[in-house]
Amino acid sequence: MRYLPQTPENRAAMLKTIGVGSVDELFDDVPAAVLNGPVEGLPDHMSEIAVERHFQKMARENLSPSTAPCFVGAGAYRHHIPATVDHLIQRSEFLTSYTPYQPEISQGTLQYLFEFQTQVALLTGMEVANASMYDGATACAEAVLMAHRVTRRPKAILSGRLHPHYRDATLNLTRFTDFETEVRDPAVGGHGNLADAIDDRTAAVVVQNPDVFGELKDLSELAEAAHAKGALLIVVVTEIVSLGAVTPPGEMGADIVVAEGQSLGVPLSFGGPHVGLFACRQKFVRQMPGRLAGETVDADGRRSYVLTLSPREQHIRREKATSNICTNAGLCALAFCIHLTLLGEEGMTGLADLNHRTAVHAAGRLTQLDGVELMTGTFFNEFALKLPKPAEPVVEKLAQMGILGGVPASRLFPGEAALENVLMIAATETVTEEDVEALAIGLREALA
């Protein structure tokens, strides 16, 4: 909405209509001890054009990924989005459509959701996928609750190298239940310690691949260890483009795969909206949250689409619902679907290869700098560097030079002294050789 201030006359008329003498009376039920007084330093009011100019001035202080070399990742990645994607999703029949409450007249929406599910299942190496979730973090939390329902066990083990936002979303969703969530130490490498922690009370082990520092692992042995104890393996993928090159989690033995689909078709947009991906084994499908679009034929034998499963509280399940997720990220799912369709299998593998080669080049160039050490072994398009000084002020200096130089690990893991000097770098296909060289020169200067 535009900035539409109320006049004193408007306010007086509204207060008179509802029968109170002042705005303060609306808060009479709130204890005085928790009410804040006037906010100091804010102007009383400004005209609409003055407000626009003020915020434009503030916006110019930001350093945009579209105008600067960008090496920021850590769960949200800058990729090139073909103009076709935006053109198609802005068609009125897509842009104005909502969740398919009446499936029989929502055939177009159901068709692209069906295609989206097919793509997600193929990418993750799983048997069935749902029609999207809000984002990767909430999908992770839903997967943990699903594992609890499947196994009827009271504990989940979260890898310390799971993205902290995914960890926190999971803790937030489980903290009011009788479910235990054990978080491991992020500084401990490998997954052997996770396997050792699995016991007869464990519902699931949650591990990210590539992990938050970009490390890639073969999860096959961890899957075997989990299954030997009757637990499930949940694999998180924050960079979906990696699955164009990396063995799918399903082929490594994952029972549930959750991912963030933002990298395909969805711009960064200051942090959202994103689109969550969720896939699992066929035998667990009735415990899967959200909804599932299916294909059938109508009375005349024509191909048509249906909502095969809608196990949420807004439908007939009520208190037996698997989740209270109220809708899917439909427009973002469509953008994902269109982008991946444009790429095709060959394009997706080519994009993944380009990302990996760009990151390898960047890692090689940056580790030529004195005191800079590569911490990540096998990686896709993201890696961690150990610097000879704290990473956070280095990133600030790089920003002053016009370079978005990555994410300090301390921002995601505050208080972890061992990670204070760690800088996380992402290099996608949008990064050029000139960008890498600019970062190398800037980093050398910032470390001097």
CATH superfamily heading of the largest domain: Type I PLP-dependent aspartate aminotransferase-like (Major domain)
How large is the count of helical segments? 13
Number of strands: 13
Fraction of residues in helix: 25-40%
Helix-strand topology string: HHHHHEHEHEHEHEEEEEHEEHEHEH
Task: Give the class-level CATH name of the largest domain.
Answer: Alpha Beta
Ranges where pLDDT stays below 50 over 5 or more residues in a row are: none
Overall mean pLDDT stands at: 92
Taken as a percent bin, the fraction of beta residues is: 5-15%
The global form is globular
- Largest sheet features: 7 strands, mixed
Largest sheet, spatial ordering of strands? 1-7-6-5-4-2-3
Under CATH, the topology of the largest domain is which? Answer: Aspartate Aminotransferase, domain 2
Structure summarized in a few sentences:
This protein has 448 residues and is of the alpha/beta class. It has helices at residues 8-18, 48-59, 83-89, 92-95, 107-124, 136-151, 164-174, 192-197, 220-228, 330-366, 391-400, 409-412, 433-447; strands at residues 128-129, 155-158, 180-183, 202-208, 232-237, 256-260, 276-280, 292-297, 303-309, 373-374, 382-386, 407-408, 422-426. It has 2 domains: 83-340, 3-Layer(aba) Sandwich (Aspartate Aminotransferase, domain 2), CATH 3.40.640.10; 346-447, Alpha-Beta Complex (Aspartate Aminotransferase, domain 1).
What does this structure look like?
The chain has helices at residues 8-18, 48-59, 83-89, 92-95, 107-124, 136-151, 164-174, 192-197, 220-228, 330-366, 391-400, 409-412, 433-447; strands spanning 128-129, 155-158, 180-183, 202-208, 232-237, 256-260, 276-280, 292-297, 303-309, 373-374, 382-386, 407-408, 422-426. It has 13 helices and 13 strands. Strand 2, helix 7 and strand 3 form a beta-alpha-beta unit. The two termini are 48 Å apart. The longest helix has 37 residues, at 330-366. The protein is globular. Helix content is 36%, strand content 13%. It is α/β, with parallel strands linked by helices and 448 residues long. Helix 3 runs antiparallel to helix 10, helix 5 packs parallel to helix 10 and helix 11 (391-400) crosses helix 13. The model has no long low-confidence stretch (mean pLDDT 92). It has two domains: 83-340, Aspartate Aminotransferase, domain 2 (3-Layer(aba) Sandwich), CATH 3.40.640.10; 346-447, Aspartate Aminotransferase, domain 1 (Alpha-Beta Complex). The strands form three sheets. A seven-stranded mixed β-sheet has the order 1-7-6-5-4-2-3, with helices on both faces. The relative contact order is 0.14.
